User: Fold these one by one.
Assistant:
Number 1:
Amino acid sequence: MAPCMESPTSRSPVAYLPLFTSLALGLAGLAACSKPAEPAPAAPAAAPAAAPGEEKAPAPAADKPFTVGFIYVGPKGDYGYNQAHSEGAAQVAKMPGIKIREEENVPETVAVQKTMESMIELDGASLIFPTSFGYFDPHILKLAEKYPKVWFLHCGGMYVEGKHPKNVGSYFGYIDEAQYVAGIVAGLTSKTNKLGFIAAKPIPQVLRNINSFTLGARSVNPKATTAVVFTGDWSLPTKEAEAANSLADQGVDVMTMHVDSPKVIVETAEKRGIFVSGYHANQSSLAPKGYLTGAEWNWGKIYTDYVTHVKAGTAFPHLLRGGLKEGFVKMSPYGAAVSEETKKKADAAKDALTAGTLIIYKGPLKDNTGKVVIPDGTSQAQTDVELEKMNYLVEGVVGKIPS
Amino acid sequence: MEGEALGLLGVPLAVIGGALRVSPPYLFVSLGECLTEKSGRVNLGLEGTLIMGAMSAYGVSYLSGSPWLGVLAAGGVGLLLGALHAYLCQQPRVNDIAIGIALMIFGVGLAFFLGKPLIQPTAPRLPAFEFGNWSSSSPLRAALQINVLFAIGIVLAFAMRYMLQRTRWGLLLRVAGESSDSARAMGYDVARIRLYATACGGFLAGVGGSFLSLYYPGSWNEGLSSGQGLMAVALVIFARWDPVRCLWASLLFGSAGALGPALQSVGISGGYHLLSVAPYVLTLAIMMMTSSAHRTLLGQPAELGAAK
């Protein structure tokens, strides 16, 4: 499983509306195909030797702008997952000679194939970032075979060398490092020693965030505990608000979350007069009093790097991963309620994580039922694949993984 | 652990608080649907009306700065959608179920389309009555915040029951719903009665939507309703077409939704999927227990779903 995946919520029938739109776009794309002037890079990658007469892909000629496509599963102004990606896209748009194309609300269905196809055929995109987890298989794989000269770079880290087409790559970030630092801020700011975490689904990436947040908090405040509420899906505003209220009722005074759009939770926390730590993007404007910090993606760095590589034609790894050190994730600026002392400790942890001297998951580590999950003397660094199968909640987390 | 932690005591409190916070949209939509169905027509499109109401309330509140103007706008949009439904259903050989589904998809799609620029901005919200100010416990104060709209909804439920049972208007509505032939024989225009009932029902559903976006959870986004409008339509059957029972049923659904998060917040997370489906299982069970092959459901308007 890969980390930066937020599949859309179970959708009402209307979610297919964008599908119809992109279907129409796709048809328009086919229509454009028939125009003789357009070089159609549609030949399937069958013959290994370049067949004579085969069209060249839209090469990044100096006079022609280099077009990059971005596809989002939800609205790009959601204060969450999609906003983080669109902020990255905005940085790409500022690069000279680059034109970007964006499409929002593209479901993880055949609709995304139509969107990609129209970006390639109509807009001449030579690089596409389909940013949602479920776009990869089979949609990206299918299109990558059909358009061997176009790059498809997917957020999710699912690329397997030798198994997937050469023009596909994937990337993801260790955002739990940022949650660890946020946990330190939360643990030192909390007066009740009770922290709250509102999570969508109990998948490894979410559990890893919960655990890292808790480990961070307990590294500086051993009395801190984290109560977890699972809502069951990526975007359920009413349930999220209910969860936030229940946690506040229980005396939780700092909460954070892993849902698609944290806006409702951040606003509810502010209304209840408690502290909140953000996720995905910077939500400080929604909670000017209670916003402490937040774990944010920094896709701008990854996207601009990728575009530079692809444009120049230089080699780069198909699978990119990184955390604070590589600049893949970052912290929101500290809020007004964070003390100088706290800032110092959080910054120290951030520096240690950046330098690679701090390992979050090291033994002895017990889960919250008392079972040892990482024995004394061993440790799991960020790149350890064991961490991607996480199925436990560490000691200090109140709650159980729903089965 | 300090003073504010309530432990297990917090669970009933959260459930009561949740009922008061979550139920108003159910209440308004089910009252609207109740009114419409009493006149002998089903409007399944209220989910679309709810979401359109939520979107327009948020937009108008954001642009004008007045949340009450937003509520009014939501009602107005609901009124129009209801009237549209009634108008389409009056045409010969038109099925009101099919029209309802079409309008539901239309309403939701239109709201998503028009609501795109409203996801990010923060609009002024509706105020609440602070019934818990006597208490020093902040959880209790939060639970007892009652929105003005909800208070209106409660009054409305009783008023509507009185209207249906004791007034001439109510009688007319029921005649249209029980036997359109009798209404016609009495010289009344059934289509017009249903038009009014459906439009008013749409108004109420729109107002219910404004509660979602302007009070709780209090934000506009595309997952806002997650099917609450549809559930509210089913709730009318559960409440046997009685406005006051709609109120109790809405409170029940609201509290059932709050139970899961409340239990998890004290560390009880077993069977949370089961808890989430509890209200639906309850509805199914009651429907099965009360249905019979020999008679229709008690209180069901006879014209409902009748082939035209």
Number 2:
Amino acid sequence: MIDHHVPDSMLLDHVAGTLPMVADVLVATHLALCPRCRGEVAMMEDAAGAMLADVEPVAADDDALLANLLGRLDDPLPQDTVGPAPFATAPPEALLPKPLRCVVGPSKDLVWSTSLPAVGKRVPLDLDLAGVPATLERVFPGRSVPSHGHEGVELTLVLAGGYTDGPGHFVRGDVQVVGPETVHSLNIDDDGEDCVLLSVRSAGRVPDGLKARIAKWLGAI
Amino acid sequence: MPVRPETEDALLPADVANMAAVALGDRAAFAALYRDLAPRLRGFLLTRTRGDRTQTDELVQETMLIVWKRASSYDPAKASVNTWVFTIARNRFIDRCRKALRPAPDPDDPSFVPAPETAPDDSLEQRRRAQKLHSALAQLPPDQRAVLEESYFQGKAQSAVAADMGVPLGTVKSRARLAMNRLRATLAEES
């Protein structure tokens, strides 16, 4: 049961399509796991559709445009500007839902490197033209991620296992939003299962100009 | 046969009837759908592309081509034609910006968690919902509706909406929240 959801304001930015790619992937992955948030998104999209009915029509030479289109109906969809996701055909698996799998590939092919000896491993993800830093983290059961702070905001989506942070317990599908002023530590559930997390940060290895831009949208949460 | 807008009082709305015909390959129904949708799509996408006419025309054509190709996947029990077309146009716009397809949840993926109770599969109920939403949106206070318009149509993140309106981010977030609460409450009302 998912108790920790993507904040509604971020769902609205997802519906509007204004999130950076990596945050969009995190939200889409949460949506694959969370019927409640899919319901919210459906309502937000219904509202957008209802508002489209009221948009002021803009005229053009629709006779010519329509004739042109009718002549192209048997053409394949244009692929010139848009290719498939890099791992669109990766086979289904239990760990990575499709929105994440189709951009990072099958989990069995991920190359993990040690982040903290005896605590965990990580895979840096390079998903975003805007350079928003993201990592997959794998933390061993019963271990703790020591107390740390963040320069910016951090979004965490749980993919496997679970952890406790203060009063909150987070399991698969849950999203945690940690603000810049918060110092916290994660205590991984001691249930024999590795805890796998998708983590997106607004600060870290980000150049300064970008940092401001990213802090701006993460601030919108 | 294409259904003209004047038959809107009939049992099936014109656009839903046209979509059903388009799914069967009816080009005349597609033409009727195009004449209804394209001018409003153009209005939406011109805002989104900051007035870029060439890009807008291409996006309208691509969106309508996708409507033709995927018409059989349209489900009137799930969404209005306007909502379905909005999501196609928005995704196409984002895909072009990113030069990659936007990842989306796939109900056929084994990792997909379905809703515990299946929603009533009823296109009449869906249309009632769409009508309720439409009138609830019309009654929203202007400052709340403006937040949704800037977000959906101008494609602004809420932080940018706040800067635009000259109000704190928290105000924009609470206007969006109030708007959503209102829509949710309207949908929950007995008709």
